[in-house]
Amino acid sequence: MAYDGFGPRIPAKHTSVLVMIDCRDGTHALADATQPQLHVTDLAATRGDGVFEAMLARDGVPCKPEAHLHRLQASAQAAELLDPGAPAWRDAIATALRASGPWPEALVKLVLSRGPEGSDTSTAWVLVSDCSEQHDAARRDGIDVLLLDRGYDSTLNTRAPWLMMGAKTLSYAVNMAAMRHARRNGADDVIFTSSDGHILEGPTSSVVIASHREGRVLLQTPPSACGILAGTTQALLFDAAQCLGWRTETTMLAPADIYAAEGAWLVSSIRLAAPINRLDGRELPRSQALNQQVLALLDVHPA
C-alpha cells in the first residue's frame, strides 16, 4: 500500500506507528508512539481490563482483518466494553499502515481498554510495528516447547462462563510468565494442558497436529467449548487444507497424540506456523516437506 499523503509519514527511525481512536464518535488521529498517551488511571494499565487483537500486515496490507475484527467484537461484548465499531477500526488501521514504513511484515495491534477509572468511554488505539524477519527462523527451523499445567480442567468454561476464557483479554501476565519459565528452561514456547490431561493451547497460539490415516488429516485441539481462544490462523489453515482435499478435525488431544503425530505446530497470526522440534525435551517426528506444505497453505494474499 503506497503512502498517499494522508497525515504525516512517521520518520524512518521510528519503528512503530500509533493511531488513537475516539470511541465516542469513531474518529481517529495519528499520535506520537514515543510519547505517553494513556492516563495513569486507565484500567488497561491498572487492571488489565480490556481486549485486543494482533494481526499480520504484509507490504502494508493487513491479513484477514475481518476475522480479527469479528473476534475483537466478540471479546468486547464478553467484556461489556464500548467498542467504536468495525468501520472505525478499519479506518484507523488504514491510516496507521499508510503512515508506516515500507515493511515486508508488520504487527498490527488493536487495543480496547475500559478507559480511565470513572470515565464513561473506552480507550482504543492501533499500533503498527515492524516485525520483518523476526519469525523467519521459527517458521523454518522450528521451536522447542514445554508442557505446562494450566491449573484447571477442560470443563471449567462451561461451569464458569464469567471467566471469559474464550475472549482475547489484556490479562496476559500468566501467559508471559509461562513464556519466561520456558526460556529459563531452555525452551522457546509452551503448550498448556488441563488438569484432566488434555492439550489446551499455547500462550499466544493454537496447537495443530498432522496425522496420516486414510489420507492427510489436520487436527486442532480442543473444541472451543473448552474455553480456548478461537484461532483465526488455525481456521485459515483448515480452510486452505480442505481445498487440497485434506480432512480437518477439532477434537480432544493428549500429549501422547502429539508425540505420535507426523508433525505438530504452534499456529498464530504473526508467527504463522512454527513446527515443534521437541516437546519436554523429547524429539518429535518432523518432515521438512510437510512443514513447507503447511506454511504454503498460510502464504495467502492479504485481504
Can you put this structure into words, describing what you see?
With 303 residues, the chain is an alpha+beta fold. The protein has two domains: 16-130, D-amino Acid Aminotransferase, Chain A, domain 1; 136-298, D-amino Acid Aminotransferase, subunit A, domain 2 (D-amino Acid Aminotransferase, Chain A, domain 2, Alpha-Beta Barrel), CATH 3.20.10.10. Helices cover 28% and strands 28% of the residues. It contains nine helices and 14 strands. Strands 7, 8, 9, 10, 11, 12, 13 and 14 form an eight-stranded mixed sheet that branches. A six-stranded antiparallel sheet has the order 2-1-6-5-3-4. A hairpin with a 3-residue loop joins strand 12 (263-268) and strand 13 (272-279). The longest helix has 15 residues, at 65-79. The radius of gyration is 20 Å and the shape is globular. The two termini are 12 Å apart. Residues 1-13 have low confidence and may be disordered.
CATH superfamily of the largest domain: D-amino Acid Aminotransferase, subunit A, domain 2
Taking Cα atoms only, what radius of gyration do you get, to the nearest Å? 20 Å
What does the largest sheet look like? 8 strands, mixed
Q: How much helical structure, as a percent, in the residues?
A: 25-40%
Beta-strand percentage range: 25-35%
CATH class term of the largest domain: Alpha Beta
Mean pLDDT equals 91
Distance between the termini: 12 Å
Uncertain parts: 1-13
Q: Shape, please?
A: globular
- Total count of strands: 14
| Element order: H for helix, E for strand | EEHEEHHEEHEHHEEEHEHEEEH
